[in-house]
Every structure is written in C-alpha cells, then in structure tokens.
C-alpha cells in the first residue's frame, strides 16, 4: 500500500461524535499587556516574568523519557529526537499564581556549522500534539528546513503532555448517543441536547486548566520558548490553526518576528456559523475539483464517468443512501455516512492521497472494492481526528473544544443551529449535514471566552510568507487575503492544486522551493504569486 504522510490537523474540522469548530483566543490579562521587556524583566507597573524568560532548557533523548504522556507522544520517534520541558505561568497577569510545564521536542540539524537557529513549529488543530506530529514527519519531513534549522515543537497548554484538558467519558468533549442521526433538523436538535449535557462534564473534570487555555496565552508561551532557546527572533512555521497562532504572536511581539511561514491560512476573525459554512462550501468545491479532474479523462479512464454534474449527483445520492443502508467495507467494517464523509475528507485534505478520491467515491456509488483508497482515507481521517496507530482516541477533541471555545465570546443556541441546518445542506449536500454540527461546538461549554485574538494587526513586523492551495477544503483560499490584510505585513502565494497545508509533500515542488528559499535565504516570492 502506498504510504501517506499524515497531514497537519485540520483547523476546526467537526466530527459527528465530537463536533469541533472555529475561533480565536481567550486572554487572561489586560488587552495589549506587554508583560515584560525582551529580557523578561518587568517594565514599570507590570508583572516580573524574568524567572520564566531566563530559564534554560535541559534536553535529553526522547528514547529515555520516563514521563508516560511524553513517552506515548514520542513513541517510535527517530533516534535523534530530543525532549525537554518549559515552565510558563498559568496567567501572565499574575505569574505568582503558579506555573505549568510544557512538553518540548526537537531534532537538531545535522549541519551545525551552518545552523540558522531554531524553527518553531505548530501543526494546528487546535489541540494537536506537536510532539506526536513532529514524530510523524521525522527530521526530514519539511523539505529543506531541517538542513539549516533545529526543528522545535511543543504541546501547547491544555494539549497532549502539557496539562491536557481531560473531560472523561468517551473519546471527546461531547459524547452524543450512539449513531446520532444528523440527516435532518430533528436529529441535529437531539445531538445538541446530548452534547450540552456532555460538555458540562468538562467543568467537573478539567476545570483547573480550562480557564488558562487559549491562543493569546499560547502565543505568550511561544515567546518564552523563543527566549529559552536563546533566539533573539522567532523563526516559525505554522500549519492550519498554527497560522492563527503565528498571527497572534506577530501582533503581540512584532519586533521579535524572524522568518515566519504560514501554510493553510486560517480566518483572522472567525465566528462559528460563517467560518464553518465557509469550510462546508470549501469541502464541496474540493470534492467537485477531484471529481472533475477524473471525469476530464473520459469514460475509459475514470470510474465516475465523463459527466461531472452526473457524477456529483451520483455521489450525493450514494451518501444519502448510506444513512439507511451502510455497505460492506474492507476490514470487516460497515461503512455508514459518517465513515464515508470522514474518509472522503481525509483524502481531500491529503495532497499525496488526493488522487485516490475518485476511486473511493466510485466504490461507495457502485458497492465495489475500494482498493487502497479506503486504507488511505481511513489513515488520513484518523490522523486528523486524533487517533493513535492502535485506533485509541487521544483527547485531541477535548483540547480542541476547550481552545476553540476559549477563543470566542460567541455561543449559539440549539434553536439557532437547527435554523441554520438547511444553509449547510445548501452549501454541500454531501458534507453539510455533518458539518452543521460544527456550529454547535461551544453550545453548552461551561467556560466563557472572548475575541481578543481576532486582533492580529502586526505593525512593524517583517513580511510573513502565507500560502494556501486553491482547493484547500479546511482553510478556504478566501481566508488567505483576509489574514494578509488583517496582519498588514504579508506576502501571499497560492498553488493550483488541492490538499491542506502541503509544505513538505512530494507533490508540492514549487511550494516547497519557494518556502525553502525564504526560510534558508530570506528571499520572498512575488506577492500574490501562484505555483502551477
């Protein structure tokens, strides 16, 4: 079977059993609070953060790690992987309140004589373990970046091995009844009622950490990490939600931005309804592009036929049929609508596995064996859904819900979500019923959030390189110019292909080359340029 590089965790990808959707950032300090000088010593009237800014990281081989959570996240990592810990305050407004420990991981560049410093990576989610993702990529998984930089990542607060949000019960923050029926407004209402009840459990089991998660606090943690690494400037590579984190960092610390790359660019000021609707339409657009790429080859070479509109109608009908009659699937499974959607989404997000999408769709329509398409789709779906190699859920969605809901003041009632259901179906007959659940992510969440991280203006920051594919289903391409305008210091580029956050994949040669040139030499491509 063809191997597939696990893509970065998709921004706000809702899952039927644990809907996860958008937003921006909780802040536990006064808006605009600088907090400290470059050295960490307090400016007049501000908290003293020097104990955090002056710490040094002790690195050791991850293979010798004794912490159970870190050991799990880094299992089977390359032998060169090193692990460490970083202390950060619960709240930057009152550092004396105590701190928490963030798990770190790095691969040192083999070319230390020409080392350009550290490149800090965030893989998105939010809620994705940086340690686990860096392990999946390996030291050579970022085109040429590892030839010049030490690759450094971390589990953000509330995530993975860094005081994770743990709500208990099943795999995620919300555990609706088995097999929730989302094929109509009535089923959606039942889903939300069950979710609200489940979310309340988080207040009892994860209440200690919930008030302290959020993008603004994590951005401040990144600056502490920068200082602990001994870097005067932050060189940064963010995927998906990691682009939002990078933008918030640039807003808070514009003079500390070094070479910053964003791949799969997030919405700068999202709300649950509009952003999830945009993603729904983007998945439909990506699906049609994949089908059209196939039908353009004609009847003999495309299992879906030569008529794109007819093929799309067949796909929609086949997915509707799965609501009532799941089909036999490899591995002794039954494929229902939820499984079909997850696997299709997985292929649409993965640049390398994208060509298998028509084969998966043909198998669903005609009830034939899907070949390797099913295995690739399942692997990609599990990767973005927070599954380990043994299929055990690892609480990604609990952290995702906590961070997303910390990052917005918006809360939709069950009535509002049900009223919008038809809007999602119109945006995509295939994905709409599933994606509508994303609007309800924070319905019933026990902690208030705010919109502080919507402000990402980074006056004085150097140019940031931002990229999104034309057919990215998870971070729609129209978010790219919005983020660039909001940050105000950016060079943007697109490419004519699909997939989500594609830097480092073999099928993205032009993107890899342009990002490499910027990271290694500091040379930016022309603004608004396109790779083809």
Give the tags.
alpha/beta, about 525 residues, ten-stranded mixed β-sheet, two-stranded antiparallel ribbon, about 35% helix, 12 strands, 16 helices
General description of the model:
With 532 residues, the chain is an alpha/beta fold. It has helices at 50-53, 68-73, 130-137, 185-205, 215-228, 241-252, 272-295, 308-324, 337-349, 357-366, 372-384, 396-406, 414-427, 432-435, 479-487, 509-521, and strands at residues 60-61, 82-89, 99-107, 117-122, 149-154, 234-239, 257-263, 327-329, 333-335, 464-471, 490-498, 529-531. The strands form 2 sheets. The protein has a 10-stranded mixed beta sheet, sandwiched between helices. Strands 8-9 form a two-stranded antiparallel sheet. The protein is globular, with a radius of gyration of 22 Å. Mean pLDDT is 88; it is low at 14-38, 170-179 and 388-394.
Can you tell me the overall shape?
Answer: globular
* Biggest sheet layout: 10 strands, mixed
What is the alpha-carbon Rg in Å? 22 Å
- Give the number of helices: 16
- Residue-averaged pLDDT, rounded? 88
| DSSP strand content | 5-15%
The level of helicity is 25-40%
Concise description?
With 532 residues, the protein is of the alpha/beta class.
Please write out the topology:
Elements lengths: L49 H4 L6 E2 L6 H6 L8 E8 L9 E9 L9 E6 L7 H8 L11 E6 L30 H21 L9 H14 L5 E6 L1 H12 L4 E7 L8 H24 L12 H17 L2 E3 L3 E3 L1 H13 L7 H10 L5 H13 L11 H11 L7 H14 L4 H4 L28 E8 L7 H9 L2 E9 L10 H13 L7 E3 L1
Parallel strand pairs: 4-5, 4-6, 6-7, 7-10, 10-11, 11-12
Antiparallel strand pairs: 1-2, 2-3, 3-5, 8-9
């Amino acid at each position: 079977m063809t191997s597939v590089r696990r893509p970065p965790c998709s921004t706000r990808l809702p899952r039927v059993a644990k809907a996860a959707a958008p937003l921006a950032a909780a802040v536990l300090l006064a808006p605009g609070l600088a907090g400290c000088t470059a050295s960490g010593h307090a400016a007049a009237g501000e908290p003293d953060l020097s104990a955090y800014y002056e710490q040094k990281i002790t690195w050791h081989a991850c293979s010798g790690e004794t912490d159970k959570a870190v050991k799990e996240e880094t299992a089977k990592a390359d032998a060169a992987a090193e692990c460490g810990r970083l202390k950060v305050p619960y709240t930057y407004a009152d550092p004396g309140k105590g701190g928490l420990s963030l798990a770190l991981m790095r691969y040192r560049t083999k070319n230390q004589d020409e080392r350009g410093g550290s490149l800090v990576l965030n893989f998105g989610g939010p809620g994705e373990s940086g340690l686990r993702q860096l392990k999946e990529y390996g030291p050579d998984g970022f085109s040429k970046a590892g030839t010049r930089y030490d690759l450094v990542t971390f589990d953000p607060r509330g995530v993975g091995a860094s005081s994770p949000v743990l709500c208990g019960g099943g795999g995620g923050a919300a555990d609706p009844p088995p097999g929730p029926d989302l094929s109509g407004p009535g089923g959606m209402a039942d889903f939300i009622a069950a979710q609200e009840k489940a979310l309340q459990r988080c207040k009892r089991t994860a209440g200690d950490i919930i008030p302290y998660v959020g993008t603004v606090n994590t951005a401040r943690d990144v600056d502490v990490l920068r200082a602990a690494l001994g870097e005067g400037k932050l060189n940064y590579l963010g995927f998906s939600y990691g682009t939002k984190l990078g933008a918030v960092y640039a807003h808070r610390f514009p003079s500390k931005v070094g070479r910053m790359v964003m791949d799969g660019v997030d919405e700068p000021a999202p709300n649950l309804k509009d952003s999830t609707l945009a993603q729904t339409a983007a998945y439909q657009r990506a699906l049609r592009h994949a089908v059209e790429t196939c039908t353009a080859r004609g009847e003999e070479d495309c299992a879906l036929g030569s008529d794109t509109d007819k093929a799309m109608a067949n796909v929609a009908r086949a997915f509707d049929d799965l609501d009532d009659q799941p089909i036999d699937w490899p591995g002794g499974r039954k494929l229902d609508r939820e499984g079909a959607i997850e696997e299709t989404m997985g292929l649409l997000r993965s640049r390398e596995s994208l060509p298998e999408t028509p084969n998966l769709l043909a198998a669903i329509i005609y009830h034939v064996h899907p070949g390797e398409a099913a295995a690739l789709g399942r692997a990609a779906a599990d990767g973005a859904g927070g599954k380990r190699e043994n299929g055990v859920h690892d609480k990604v969605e609990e952290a995702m819900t906590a961070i997303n809901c910390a990052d917005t003041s918006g809360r939709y009632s069950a009535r509002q979500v049900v009223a919008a259901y038809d809007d999602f179906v119109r945006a995509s007959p295939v994905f709409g019923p599933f994606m509508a659940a994303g609007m309800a992510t924070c319905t019933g969440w026990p902690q208030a959030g705010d919109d502080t991280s919507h402000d990402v203006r980074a006056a004085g920051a150097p140019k940031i390189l931002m990229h999104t594919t034309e057919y990215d289903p998870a971070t729609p391409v129209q978010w790219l110019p919005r983020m660039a305008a909001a940050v105000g210091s950016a060079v943007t580029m697109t490419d004519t292909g699909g997939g989500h956050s594609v830097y480092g994949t073999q099928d993205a040669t032009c993107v890899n080359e342009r990002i490499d040139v910027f990271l290694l030499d500091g040379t930016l491509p022309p603004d608004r340029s396109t790779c083809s």
